[in-house]
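G.,

No rush on this.
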Amino acid sequence: MSESVRVTPESLLPLACKILGRLEPDQSRWMTWLETPELHSPSQADAVVEAAARLKQAAASHEKVIVAGDYDADGILGTAILTGALRRQGIETGFYIPDRIREGYGLQEKTVRLAHEKGYSLLVTVDNGVRAEEALACAADLGMDVIVTDHHQFETPPQAAWFVHPALMEPEFSTLCGAAVACELLRYAGWATDYELLLAGLASVGDQMAVTGQTRALIFQALEQLKTDCDPHIRLLAQGIPENETDLSFQVIPKINALGRLSDLANANNAVRFFLTDDFRQISSLAQGICQINDRRREMSGRMVQEAQSRVRPGSTVIFLEDPTWHEGIIGLAAGSLCETTGRPVILAARGQSGLKCSMRSPEGVDCMDLLKGFDRFVTLGGHSRAAGFSLDLKDRDDFEAYLKTVTVPHAQKADPLDVKAADLTIPAIRQLDALRPFGTGFELPELRIQDPAVAFVRDLSAGRHRRYVMENGLEAMRFNQPDSEKALSPDQIRWLTGKPSVNVWMQTARPQLILSAVGTSQE
């Protein structure tokens, strides 16, 4: 077997065969997904070549460079990637992540003017810039050069001398996140290290990019790197060694995002400092603070989701809810949770004295930006197909709600669960799924359904908050945060169990299990 192939199609167990068959019906293409994802050669696109040359000019001329990032994980990691690499080249490099609440999204005129006053001659954006018309015009007036690196949708290119975007690069780079775009500049310049590639892979998971081309390779290589030499920054945030992209998505990414979300309680620039320092005492201290902020974020978002769920009205094609007590940094999380449970587009808004700060999430097959394009009175608007953020004046609130009632929402295409047998879920079968990883957007691990699961008994945990279902063959299925409607179910009422497979290791003993998302009964 070639070293580039992780497993051959012939050696796949039934579980992996069923899953790969669902994700890639064309068996002649199976080898594409089973091969080890290798990084492509650095992009040779004119945009990359010219922007990299400008960075090298800055190094040769001893210029001061300011990196302007975004406050989510992609922007924070991209800022750390670029700042760390430029500093290694001897370039005096500063960075700035805006305050989500006080300043809002994107590059602001105030930031540009302050950077100019401090002697910065070159400004580089990361994960933002395509919509920063006023700030870019200000930079031009002040005589500052600007490199815009971004991956968000744009209609016309920004007014910057250098613009680097996946749309201007080769097809294999079409799904890059903002941090990965910045990293590609460094790869062409010959300045990228394994650490920058690791952070780019982490950011790709955080921004939920389609796992094809270079993005797939970045995520895979990051996970391989963590297996052999786990970076202390990620290890402390994960409180262990992440095994796959799911671990990164749930254990690391939310903690990075928390600082940007709760900018009234924390400073997202500290997250950049966290990833830039190699002093373990500082890493440990900053990691502790980041985890504490995330605990607060989790508490607040859980409360908001409950409040929003109680106010959802049946029949509305787009859920639109607002509240003056909702934290604008958390509404996106709550909207995502509500979207997942309802299968409908969700817009949640934090209402202030002068306007609404809104966050939108949509299910698979429904494009946020397409739904919003028919309304033209947004104060600010940005986003992509599955997520958008925007603000509205209070005077336009009612017209916007009326507009939402007129839009045609495509039917969300949620894939049916994949039917399997309990006997298929063995430890070797579940672990073989690693040969298909990374899973993610465009190549998502499907939910599995066991029909008539023959549940032997159930056991409630944490005072009934969670439940473990144990089947007659010994397979366990865990239902975390079970709804009240399931708490009185007996084993003979269970008609099907739906969830995703995993291997649970406890006290050095490994057991196959299903992490449940739904429980079906004989009454349904």
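When you get to it, here's the other one too:
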Amino acid sequence: MSIAMPEHDQAAPDAALVAEIDAIGQEAEVEQEAGSPCPQEPAETPTIELRHLVRNPKNPRSPKRRRPRPDLLASVKDRGFDTPFVITRTDRPGTYMIMDGHLRMDVAEHLKLTEVPYSFKGALADDPAEQYLITVTTSQHKEPLTPLQTASMLFGAAEAGASKEKLAAAYGKKRGRVEEVLKVGKLPKATRSAAEACSYEWDIAELAVLDEFADDQEATERLMQAAEANRFKFQVERERIERTEREQRAAIRAEHEAEGITVLDEEPDGAVRVTYLEVPADGSCITDEQHAACPGHAAVFERYGRVRVSYFCLDPQANGHEVYSPRGSAATPKAQDKAAKRAVVRGNKDHAAAQTVRQTWLRGLISGAGSVEKDTLDKISRFATLATLNAPDPVRKFASAMKRAELQADLLGMGASKPEDFEQAVLSASPRRLMMLNFAVVAAAYEKAVTKDTWRTDQPQSEYDYSGSDRKHARTWLEFCRDVGHNLAPIEAAIVADETYTPADLSSQAGTLTGTQDAQDGGDEQDDAGGGDEPVKDGDEDGRDEDDPAPEAPRDGAGSVEVEPDGSAGAQVEESEAA
């Protein structure tokens, strides 16, 4: 099999030159087949006239002539070409294709050279996979290919039959996983074009993430905008949260519709929760099971908190129900209260996304102690030592915190968290690793202290926090993370700046998520995303849902259906418990 040539108008080469080049290639192949241990190197590198060369149309940078690189141009002017062009034969006699040397070709054409040194690789003409891989392997020692260009070449090689072992050898196993590269290689054209147009410096792992959202154009657009703002990883986690909720909603909807139950996204006007319906004869509460046969029975997704539905009657009066009015409650929340609560929900999702990105970064920092720069290592050591000596509240309280060992082990990348596991980790640790073990304890303590409420400035002061120290400690921790390399998410930046954070609606735009709206939004909320009457000593151990508003005086017998971690619909939970 030979390489198909593009159309061109180059003059036919001299017959003697053609015979000479072919002879050299044939001799080299015969010697290699005969097992010659060391073929003799010619006294001088052979040269070929430029008019016999054509560019490789598969070259990822460009098969067309470009402006030469200034440094390479200066080098060639000074010393000539140090590296010969790698060429192979084509279907057209006397015409040879450049497999390695396109940047040098730009220089040669710019300088109007008539000939260049070459190395003939005839076997390349019959090996489509190697035609892609040579671009990757030779680029490692010159101007590197961009991640997208590298992925294109490796994907092309895979399509041409190269094994994953061969791909890994060309790409370098330490530079990324082949599976990620192949994901990037098959990205839709629109996604690739958007990534190429973005000024963000992508790596293969980040480009591979785009494959998750290849079927969601709006999410992809938000990710590109976030990349331009240097908050790509935060936006990825935010999109994952939304996608998971959509999948959970779809599971609940399918289950209910299969049972013939109407499912609505929002509570319609005039609808009343089954919680507040009474049997006219005796005033007893109607349960969800009893109401299931009512023509007005419907499941409505809750606006806040975990993905779940509660049951309503769409027309209580027409269906003969008495409506119980909770003491001191309004029929519906005010519009501004709804907006404030939605902002809390969005803010809590932003907090969760930022926390995931930050802790992923921390695990990488701790596990890569051997490659951490000296000044960064010095900052880490001093911060951890000072926190141990001064024992600020996060460190002091952490000693008795629940799941303390699990959080430490997670940041350390350890699968187990028993005392003997930590003992073994200490015994086998290098001096640098020992320092990171100490730092992991401090990091886990501060991470525990940055709760889902820390971002909010509209909450009443807790009796356990006399001076706003919780937010102060979070600010200290996030400032340190920023100083040693963490890219702050907008919600984290607002805490560091001690400013009010106003979450943006994800569906409206992917622009800035910070704002200057005052804290009066939702200031009187009693939801567990921001403060009931009871103080919370440990942010993730109160057992409540992090986004729910307080229920309206729930009564026995009515509840809601939520999604379990595996995505299935779980048992009913009481409204008061869900809140």
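The longest strand covers residues 115-120. The chain is about 45% helix and 10% strand.

Enjoy the weekend,
O.
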